[in-house]
Design brief:
Helices cover 62% and strands 0% of the residues. By secondary structure, it is mostly helical.
Length: 74
Amino acid sequence: MAKRRGDYFGLGRLVSIILAIIPVTSWILGAITRFSEGKILAGILRLILGWNIIWIVDLILMILGGTILRLIPL
């Protein structure tokens, strides 16, 4: 099993945290990440809902674990 390096295109954890702090980049990169994983519905939901509570949760999860929230694992 391949080891994950980080959610935002495999960037380092510190760079990902910095990008997650900025709401616009977190919103866009979160959606792009989900689309690149082949999760079309999750990407669309991030575009629609990703600027509010999901941003705060993503920021907390990025600081604690280095990953973004995955509401829809499908």
